[in-house]
């Protein structure tokens, strides 16, 4: 069994190499370079150092993970065959080197010694050129795998692997999810390399407009306190809510409790549904913010008493989503949405059984639900154990029966009988796969739309709407109905 020695080529030319690294490179019996695109490589050739590189792997594979995978496999196989390869990487071996991480992990699993030697990191000259103290806090990010969620605008951020304009364009688009188009960014290329170092400061929108990139390029984004940037971060929002609840915060927010906030959550949820019905994306975003406000207020109130905080809310939801989607996060499969729903209910039932919960199948439906929503939930739960009508004709007969009972009921009995009629109507809606709540909301919107047309017709006459007979109003109503159907292309 051989072993693998990993060494860093440093950030610049041969003058930046430590003595130990110099001796290792010049004395290696089998030297492999991750890439020949580095200032030290020309010097190695002049010195007569023999080496092989993995540049051909980059051309062969379709993506970087596959490149790193092949490089690691080939080195590990060489060691298993009894060889002692020295593997040289740009910069420092432990800074942004995916292949080294693979070698360390899998070398241990396969019993192959992997020794990491030194190498000067590019971070030292980059920080020096930028005048940045890393103790202030910084992030080192990979331009080939950059997501907006990785960014933290409060810190110094360095993005490496921005080696050409195409990669710079992708980085720019990701940064623009947080930063304004004219936000200043700096491109540092070949930091610390004499006669090659270039430092360019540009507005973000110009980042990819010139060919200013190479294998030694780093993009720097300075920290900011701009509200335009920070207000797009979840942590900023939770901080605002905490500030509102602070002793010197907002008097209204400070006096709220879980109990006092109860009506607002439902109210905001219904306003969001109204925006959905109107297909108004801007309003939907605004109303979802109002719903989120209620969630954050409840979480902040709970955190002040030590019950839970927003992190517990997020963790519990994350755990539940993973647990209830084994066809995504586990080894199970689901062919369609109906099967997914069935699995969800099965897992939910197992969770309740595991908690030793016994009682009615109707448990878990809040009594505070609006009546129509509560009726829907109750009937859905009862239907799961077979308690439902099998044919729509049976529900029609029941509706007629309930209507007759309303007409023959005493004033004291009438409210109960009307309730029975509504409850049966919910059953009919569910039989046909229609959400009763949404159906009734749509009917309300339709009524408002048509009645406003009636009012408009009345205004054209100069008379108040209540001065017309029911027959006249009904005529306008039917006209509005016909116009609406014609607008929708219905006969």
Spatial sequence of strands, sheet with the most strands: 3-2-4-1-5
Q: What profile does the largest beta sheet have? A: 5 strands, parallel
State the helicity in percent bands: 40-55%
First-to-last CA distance? 83 Å
CATH topology group of the largest domain: Cobalt-precorrin-4 Transmethylase, domain 1
Quaternary state of this entry equals: single chain
CATH architecture call of the largest domain: 3-Layer(aba) Sandwich
- CATH homologous group name of the largest domain: Tetrapyrrole methylase, N-terminal domain
State the shape: elongated
The gyration radius over C-alpha positions equals: 34 Å
Blueprint (SSEs and pairs):
Layout: E1 4-8, H1 19-27, E2 31-33, H2 39-46, E3 52-53, H3 55-60, H4 64-80, E4 86-89, H5 98-109, E5 114-116, H6 123-130, E6 138-142, E7 156-160, H7 165-175, E8 184-189, E9 198-203, E10 217-221, H8 227-230, H9 234-245, H10 251-255, H11 258-277, H12 281-305, H13 310-323, H14 326-329, H15 337-354, H16 371-383, H17 392-408, H18 411-431, H19 436-461, H20 470-487
Parallel strand pairs: 1-4, 1-5, 2-3, 2-4, 6-7
Antiparallel strand pairs: 7-10, 8-9, 8-10
Helix pairs in contact: 4-5, 9-12, 11-12, 16-18, 17-18, 19-20
Could you characterize what this model shows?
With 491 residues, this protein is of the alpha/beta class. It folds into five domains: 113 residues, Tetrapyrrole methylase, N-terminal domain (Cobalt-precorrin-4 Transmethylase, domain 1, 3-Layer(aba) Sandwich), CATH 3.40.1010; 108 residues, Tetrapyrrole methylase, C-terminal domain (Methyltransferase, Cobalt-precorrin-4 Transmethylase, Domain 2); 76 residues, MazG-like (Helix Hairpins, Orthogonal Bundle), CATH 1.10.287.1080; 34 residues, no CATH class; 51 residues. Helix content is 55%, strand content 9%. The chain has 20 helices and ten strands. The strands form two sheets. The protein has a five-stranded parallel sheet with strand order 3-2-4-1-5, sandwiched between helices. Strands 6-7-10-8-9 form a five-stranded mixed sheet, with no helix packed on it. Helix 2 links the parallel strand 2 and strand 3. It is elongated and about 105 Å long.
């Amino acid at each position: 069994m051989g072993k693998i020695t990993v060494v860093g080529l440093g950030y610049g030319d041969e003058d930046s190499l430590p003595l130990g690294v110099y001796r290792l490179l010049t004395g290696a019996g089998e030297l492999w370079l991750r890439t020949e695109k580095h200032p030290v490589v020309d010097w190695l050739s002049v010195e007569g150092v023999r080496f092989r590189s993995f540049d051909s792997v980059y051309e062969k594979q379709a993506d970087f993970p596959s490149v790193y995978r092949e490089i690691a496999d080939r080195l590990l196989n060489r060691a298993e065959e009894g060889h002692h390869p020295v593997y040289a990487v740009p910069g420092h071996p432990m800074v942004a080197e995916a292949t080294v991480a693979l070698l360390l992990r899998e070398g241990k699993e396969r019993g192959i010694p992997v020794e990491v030697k030194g190498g000067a990191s590019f971070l030292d000259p980059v920080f020096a050129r930028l005048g940045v103290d890393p103790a202030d806090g910084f992030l080192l990010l990979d331009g080939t795998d950059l997501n907006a969620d990785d960014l933290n605008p409060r810190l110094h951020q360095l993005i490496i692997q921005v080696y050409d304009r195409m990669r710079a364009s992708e980085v720019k688009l990701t940064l623009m999810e947080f930063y304004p188009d004219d936000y200043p960014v700096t491109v540092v290329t070949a930091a610390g390399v004499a006669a090659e170092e270039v430092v360019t400061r540009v507005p973000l929108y110009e980042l990819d407009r010139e060919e200013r990139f190479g294998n030694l390029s780093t993009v720097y984004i300075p920290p900011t306190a701009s509200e335009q940037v920070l207000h797009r971060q979840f942590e900023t929002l939770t901080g605002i809510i905490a500030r509102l609840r602070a002793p010197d915060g907002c008097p209204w927010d400070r006096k709220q409790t879980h109990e006092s906030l109860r009506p607002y959550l439902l109210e905001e949820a219904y306003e969001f549904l109204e925006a959905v019905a109107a297909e108004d994306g801007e309003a939907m975003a605004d109303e979802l913010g109002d719903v989120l406000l209620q969630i954050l207020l409840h979480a902040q109130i709970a955190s002040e008493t030590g019950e839970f905080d927003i992190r517990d809310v997020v963790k519990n939801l994350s755990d539940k989503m993973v647990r209830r989607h084994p066809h995504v996060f586990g080894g199970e499969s689901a062919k369609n949405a109906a099967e997914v729903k069935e699995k969800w209910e099965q897992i939910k039932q197992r969770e309740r059984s595991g908690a030793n919960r016994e009682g009615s199948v109707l448990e878990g439906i809040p009594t505070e639900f609006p009546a129509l929503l509560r009726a829907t939930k109750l009937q859905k739960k009862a239907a799961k154990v077979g308690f439902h009508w099998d044919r729509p004709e049976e529900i029609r007969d029941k509706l007629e029966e309930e209507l007759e009972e309303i007409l023959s009921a005493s004033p004291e009995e009438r409210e109960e009988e009307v309730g029975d009629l509504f409850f049966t109507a919910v059953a009919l809606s569910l039989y046909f796969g229609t959400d009763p709540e949404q159906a009734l909301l749509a009917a309300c919107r339709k009524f408002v739309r048509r009645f406003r047309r009636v009012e408009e017709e009345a205004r054209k006459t100069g008379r108040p709407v209540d001065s017309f007979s029911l027959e006249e109003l009904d005529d306008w109503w039917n006209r509005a109905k016909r116009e609406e159907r014609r607008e929708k292309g219905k006969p």
